[in-house]
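This week, look over our next protein:
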Amino acid sequence: MFIREEAEAREELYLSKFASKSKETKGRVRSEVSCSIRTEYQRDRDRILHCKAFRRLKHKTQVFLAPEKDHYRTRLTHTLEVAQIARTIAKALRLNEDLTEAIALGHDLGHTPFGHAGEEVLNKLYKEGFKHNEQSVRVVEFLEKAGLGLNLTWEVRDGMRNHGTADKPSTLEGHVVRLADKIAYINHDIDDSIRAKIITEEQIPKEFTKVLGDSVRKRLDTLVTDVIMNSIEADKIIMSDTVLKAMMGLRKWMFDNVYRNEKAKSEEGKAKELVAELYHYYLQHIDKMPLEYQKHITEHKQSEDRVVCDYIAGMTDQYAIETFEEVFVPKAWRV
């Protein structure tokens, strides 16, 4: 018996009746021979982990643009924290951990340089609009491997597309990631904000801390435990009303006091202008983009503005800055 088949048999025996079984996947756009070792969701996890877009996340903004210290989160460390929280919940609920991890690792692949500031600019400039969750799916369906994509399963792509607050994933694993994303960023953004001296733990309203806890560790424990205890043997992933209300209240407080804070966002205006200038430049100079992106236009029949959007969205913070300097900042003349 193949090792994969043994793993699929264990899923049938152990996983909850509400879990997504690997054998029951809706499959891939292009059919492939099954792996003798890994299940379909394990293959997806590995493909995401090894792709170029995943590696670029280490140099993309989470909240603080180009922080000078080593311990601030990046988009990559955020992704890893989401994956860890999501797997903890999935394991406790006997859901498919491999599917959960694959969705978590891929959910932010489409994020722009400079975080939501870059996303906001591209959403305004690109005629069809820009959302990082949709771009994440585009990355794995098309942009990776020069137009071939990663050919991931339907369930992974569905979870990546629908990880936002207002979205509804089709699997419980997708719902786990959707909640884990909020749990992760609320808490690690508090941690980073305290480190940056933007807020203090004591400033967090007591109406939230008395429910969730008065430290990052306690809040994480409260939130994860609440999700698990309220979702055991259920066909949905839920939180208690009290904890959910406190979490969403804390999230709103973070928007008011951190995400829109002048100190945290002091360079955001410059970043937005930089992204906009690069977008306009490459629309006028398609030939200056890497050949891989030019081929998306000439060979894959993608529109020019779509490909320019793809190229800029894929940039890391530092690469965007270096590219801007190369294009717009005059250099000293030498004999």
The chain has 16 helices and no strands.
